[in-house]
Amino acid sequence: MRALLDQQPDIDVIGYTTGRESQAAAADSLPDVIVVMAPALTIENRRELTALAALAKVIHIAKAESACRSIEALRLGVRAVLAPDTSAEELVHILRTVSAGSAMVIPEAARGSFDRLPLRQASGLAAGVVHTLTPREAEVIALLTQGKSNAEIALKLSVSAATVRSHVHHLLRKLGVGSRAQAVAVAYETGLISALEQNSNST
């Protein structure tokens, strides 16, 4: 990965192998993005990942069978989730996109991880929230869980990017989270998507 990124004139790479080393280096050099390979997410891993996410934008690389870890990583503040077989071109594109401030939660190459998750029964939270969402907000959260960017959602729904941002803001407030990544995690963890589908089928 470093050999690949070193070829990019606009990307400077500083490599560290442990969470503690990365945390110390990030606090000192303030990088735009930190790339983390799938940790076991022990208590110590969670602390380190949370600390790194507070210092920079974190991209999490996880195998397909580690989807549950990826969801938890989103809750901890990770900005994007990638599969290990993500192409070189896609990796560079995502690094630049995340660095520029855009939230790319689940790119195409990583969606297989989440598609393998079993369907969840709606929790109390999901059952309560689903009836507070407008039809448009329900469409937006469904597209967010597919890893769509604001621009892609705007194109899909034939609305402006400003309108999408407004819907996302309302979703975050209703779900009680601070980021779209956390909203996606909540949607998967609570069975919100299943609840929305059931509600849609019953109307």
The main sheet comes to: 3 strands, parallel
What's the CATH H-level superfamily name of the largest domain?
Response regulator
CATH class category label of the largest domain: Alpha Beta
- Principal-axes shape call: globular
Number of distinct beta strands: 3
How many domains make up the 3D coordinates? 2
Mean pLDDT: 77
Which structural class do the helices and strands define?
A: mainly alpha
Q: Which stretches are low in confidence, meaning pLDDT under 50 for 5 or more residues running?
A: none
Order of helices and strands: HHEHEHEHHHHHHHH
Tell me the helix content.
Answer: 55-70%
CATH-assigned fold name of the largest domain: Rossmann fold
Describe this structure in words.
By secondary structure, the protein is mostly helical. It folds into 2 domains: 2-115, Response regulator (Rossmann fold); 124-202, Orthogonal Bundle (Arc Repressor Mutant, subunit A). The chain is built from 12 helices and 3 strands. Strands 1-2-3 form a 3-stranded parallel β-sheet, sandwiched between helices. α3 links the parallel β1 (33-37) and β2. The longest helix has 15 residues, at 161-175. It is globular and about 50 Å long. The model has no long low-confidence stretch (mean pLDDT 77).
